[in-house]
Amino acid sequence: MAHANLKLIDALRITAQKLAEGGNYQWGHMGSCNCGNLAQELTKLTKAEIHQFAMEGRGDWREQVEQFCPSSGLNIDLLIVDLLNHGLNVTDLQDLEWLSDKKILQRIPLEKRNKMRHNVREDVVLYMNTWADMLEEQLIPHIKLNLDFLAKEVLVEYEQV
Question: So which domain of life are we looking at (predicted)?
């Protein structure tokens, strides 16, 4: 599972929102599919650039990831390295393309889960938002807030009374 971090959570939510609002989605296009849309948000590459990089490689995202070699020099492999540096792992990319991560799917009500399809925009939006929720829940216990400044403000107010 991905390493929970704010940038990845934000990218998942923004990508889901863009798709929900009618953003470009075409599952058969490497730059406009499930992974392609998230890659656009994380890397700021265009859908055309991502698609062009993928065409230098082999197959869909699942196949690209299966044959991933960080030292190949292929642009698609460099793109995958960039995505990994944002906290994803190769399995996350494969699962996102096919909406197949069991931990994410378990959080989706059974009646909806059983009808989900990997190439349906609304299902991708639900999957990404559910994933972002899950990552957020993992991250929250590790966030430490320094609220010392509140105690100082209360003390100053008390002294002024």
Answer: Bacteria
CB 43 within 8 A of CB 83: yes
- How does pLDDT run along the chain (161 residues), one tens digit per residue? 889 899 999 999 999 999 999 999 999 899 999 999 999 999 999 999 999 999 987 788 999 999 999 999 899 999 999 999 999 999 999 999 999 999 999 999 999 999 999 999 999 999 999 999 999 999 876 777 777 766 666 555 556 55
Distance CA 5, CA 26 (A): 27
Kindly give, in sequence order, each residue whose CB lies less than 8 Å from that of residue 22, ignoring residues fewer than 6 positions away.
none
C-alpha 136/C-alpha 141 separation (Å) is 9
CB 89 within 8 A of CB 58: no
